[in-house]
Design a protein that fits this description.
Elements lengths: L4 E3 L6 E3 L2 H4 L23 H32 L2 H27 L10 H11 L2 H13 L5 E8 L4 E8 L4 H5 L2 E7 L6 H4 L3 H8 L5 H12 L1
Antiparallel strand pairs: 1-2, 3-4, 3-5
Helix pairs in contact: 2-3
């Protein structure tokens, strides 16, 4: 990214456009939840939701904006070393923002049950049954070592659904190529205040608030 050069109408002298003139970037913002903090109770309590959204997700958003400003400066000055050194923070905070933005919409106080229509058919096709799919995604999510996510994704090349686990805040599509449909956050901040260290209990409960309409909508969109 090189500075734009323009001429002063009075003096004819060359001026270099400041960085802000060159790149006007919309800052990332914390998305509103589509429901109240207490709406997912008793499955996920209000205290967890408030801290998770207003503190944890907000931190990823704030840090992502800071990292992007630094990255923009490194691009403008051609500092490749700085660009490389910033990439882990970009991946972590960018992934945190991407993942949580999906996660909030994957949940609903009117959720639970089973999906309908085409999504249900492809789940049966690719996993044998809904019960088998649920068991597999739960097992993958329980098995994440440390912090991370369990995902249902869409493999566009193969035209099939796939289950995957991602460590930390690694974004599914950016690290595996799978298009995210349903993400289950298994960082301890997503459940510890209510379920302590018993992750399987949290995973059993979360199925009661899965927003299958949202998952189906994401599936329909990625197939286009």
């Amino acid at each position: 990214l090189l500075p734009s050069v323009f001429f002063s109408p009075r003096s004819g002298a060359k001026l270099v456009a400041p960085l802000g003139f060159l790149v006007s970037r919309q800052k990332h913002t914390l998305p509103d939840l589509p429901y109240d903090y207490g709406a997912l109770e008793p499955h996920i309590n209000a205290e967890i939701m408030q801290l998770h959204h207003s503190k944890h997700h907000a931190t990823y958003v704030n840090n992502l904006n800071i990292v992007e400003e630094k990255y923009k400066e490194a691009l403008a000055t051609g500092d490749v070393t700085a660009q490389v050194s910033l990439q882990p923070a970009l991946k972590f905070n960018g992934g945190g923002h991407i993942n949580h933005t999906i996660f909030w919409t994957n949940l609903s106080p009117n959720g639970g049950g089973e999906p309908k229509g085409e999504l249900m058919e492809v789940i049966k096709r690719d996993f044998g049954s809904f019960a088998n799919f649920k068991e597999k995604l739960t097992a993958v999510s329980v098995g994440v070592q440390g912090s991370g996510w369990g995902w249902l994704g869409y493999n566009k090349e193969q035209g099939r659904l796939q289950i995957a686990a991602c460590a930390n805040q690694d974004p599914l599509q950016g690290t595996t190529g799978l298009i995210p449909l349903l993400g289950i956050d298994v960082w301890e901040h997503a459940y510890y205040l209510q379920y302590k260290n018993v992750r399987p209990d949290y995973l059993k409960a979360i199925w009661n608030v899965i927003n299958w309409e949202n998952v189906s909508s994401r599936y329909a969109t990625c197939k286009k």
